[in-house]
Amino acid sequence: MKTNSIVLVMTKDVVTVSPNQDLLDVKHIYEKDKWHHHIPVVEHDELVGMVSLVDFMYNIVGAGINDNHEVYKNLKVKDIMTAKPFYLTTSDSVEDVAKVLSTEYYHAVPVLEGNKLVGIVSTADVINYYLKKAV
């Protein structure tokens, strides 16, 4: 492993959803504390999409916290996810992800090893890495 491998900063225990899961499941994930703003969508162990907090909020307008609202019954993850998301691999470095997060419109990037999702890196993860390195 590189001394500055992306593996050093990524969150490894990633909670994922499947494309056919109910949107209500996404709501419950976002209601938990300390959650990344992005949720990887996985099907047959392969990354097929990402759901961002913005995607979610845009699609639940009017539903609010009411678990019984129609939007939660009618929409599936596949209806709101971004398909074929950008990703990095375990061979990439912290600098690689820092460049992507600072120049592109991403706030979190999934990390793959082969075709398998093994982690996710957020802007906060990279900032914390550099802050710890500075002291």
Automatic annotation (TrEMBL):
Q: Which domain of life is it from?
A: Bacteria
Q: Which residues form a coiled coil?
A: none
What keywords sit in the KW lines? CBS domain
Q: Where is the CBS domain?
A: 10-68, 81-135
Q: Do the record's keywords include Lipid biosynthesis?
A: no
* Pfam families hit by this protein: CBS
Instruction: Spell out the protein name for this chain.
Output: CBS domain-containing protein
Organism, per UniProt? Aestuariibaculum suncheonense
